[in-house]
Specification:
It is a single chain. The chain is α/β, with parallel strands linked by helices. Helix content is about 35%, strand content about 15%. It is built from 13 helices and 14 strands. Helix 1 packs antiparallel against helix 8 and helix 3 crosses helix 7. About 50% of the residues are buried.
């Protein structure tokens, strides 16, 4: 095995892997000196919203307090009836699922393509029912899902589409940015995303009626500026404050070059791993642009004994902290779903569900199980240099060859 000298990779959990700098400090200072820290009166958050909408090509964008809040706003905007079903992915963060339950709807899990871990029109169609109100399409790892077929299916059934773009800033499909296809869409500004405010979210839509409902939901149902405002429905305070909005504004200036650098480095790694037995580089569907929130490989354990877990253990020796499986188990195996732990002992809203909607048998999720078994998530951020990429490549190649018995 080729000997490599370990180096410390930049991390998106601190300044080494983030673009935070003097611009953000100046923006926050300006917000503080203004004395106006609420976005209902300030200018920073509103400016960010307008600029983000313009950047991706959508009519409306609303900033909120987190990516989970953004998903909650999206689900609330379509206003499901208790017991309505919302199809979603079996491989996702819990912050994209609990908002469905909080709105009284039932998450119904679709299987995924094991190559991308994204839902497809075929996997969604298998779990459609007369009670399906919406479909959540998650662009996992920054790899845009195949939206044409999904939208055709949804429109044929008059079903709303929500895009979860938390990991997919500036990802595109057929020349359009994600976050512009769905009826309503959610982004995250959490610490590790392409741009960050620590916590924060964005909700986008082209629908004026949905836009007004999103705005109300972020503001406790109160229509600031309306002729006769009232608290029209149950809603929360999900506002982004002006300090966060100021950071978001400064970060937005850096988004395009951040994405460009991530893609350039990813292409370099893909080229260097080509032909490595037992390792598959990211599968990018035709028409999709991958923006690499993380770089993922698939490991064939029949070729490389121990699969992703064994590879990760050897990479750790070189200070490369890769994550097998991404999530340790499909979302439906978490206690919230497996044991229906919701509000007190009520198990609501699962009590309203069809038994078929809660059928979490492994046989229904071959793509999910295969995808999680094969995937290895490599660290990735915009401060990786060619040297960092080559270090990862050499270390990964050496680990694979060592496990496969190709080198001692």
């Amino acid at each position: 095995m080729t000997v490599t000298t370990p180096i410390i990779l930049p991390s998106d959990q601190d300044a080494t892997g983030r673009t935070l700098g003097d611009e953000e400090i100046a923006a926050v200072t300006a917000a503080l000196r203004s004395g106006t820290l609420t976005s209902t009166k300030g200018v920073h958050t509103k400016t960010f919203e307008k600029r983000f909408a313009s950047l991706i090509g959508v009519k409306h964008a609303f900033a909120c307090s987190s990516g989970s809040a953004a998903m909650h706003c999206a689900v609330s905007a379509i206003d499901p009836e208790p017991g309505d079903e919302i199809i979603t992915t079996s491989i996702t963060d819990m912050g994209a699922l609990t908002p469905i339950l909080y709105q009284g709807a039932i998450p119904v899990f679709a299987d995924v393509d094991p190559r991308t871990c994204n839902v497809t029109a075929k996997t969604i169609e298998r779990v459609l029912s007369p009670r399906t109100r919406a479909i959540v399409v998650t662009h996992l790892f920054g790899n845009a899902a195949e939206m044409d077929d999904i939208l055709e299916l949804a429109r044929s059934r008059n079903i709303r589409v929500i895009e979860d773009c938390a990991q997919a800033f500036l990802a595109s499909y057929r020349g359009k940015h994600v976050g512009t296809f769905g009826d309503v869409n959610a982004f995250s500004l959490q610490q590790g995303k392409h741009i960050t405010t620590g916590e924060g979210g964005i909700v986008t839509t082209n629908d004026d009626e949905l836009a007004h409902r999103i705005y109300l939901f972020i503001n406790k149902g109160w229509g600031y500026g309306d002729p006769k405002p009232d608290h029209d429905f149950i809603a929360l305070n999900y506002r982004m404050n002006e300090l966060t909005g100021a950071v978001a504004n400064a970060q937005l200036d850096k988004l395009a070059p951040v994405v460009e650098r991530r893609i350039e480095r990813a292409n370099r790694l893909t080229a260097s791993l080509r032909g490595l037995a037992g390792i598959s580089t990211p599968h990018i569907p035709d028409g999709s642009t991958h923006v690499y929130w993380k770089y993922t490989i698939r490991v064939d354990k029949d070729v490389i004994p121990g699969g992703p877990v064994a590879i990760a253990a050897l990479l750790k020796e070189h200070n490369i902290f890769a994550v097998p499986r991404y999530i340790q188990k499909p979302a439906f195996r978490c206690a919230i779903f497996a044991e229906r732990r919701t509000f007190g002992k009520s198990q609501w809203p699962f009590t309203l569900a069809r038994p078929e909607a809660l059928a979490y048998d492994d046989a229904h999720f071959p793509g999910t199980l295969a995808g999680l078994e094969q995937v290895l998530v490599l660290p990735w951020n915009e401060h990786f240099t060619n040297e960092h990429v080559d270090f990862i490549s050499t270390s990964l190649r050496g680990a694979a060859e060592r496990l496969a018995g190709g080198s001692k």
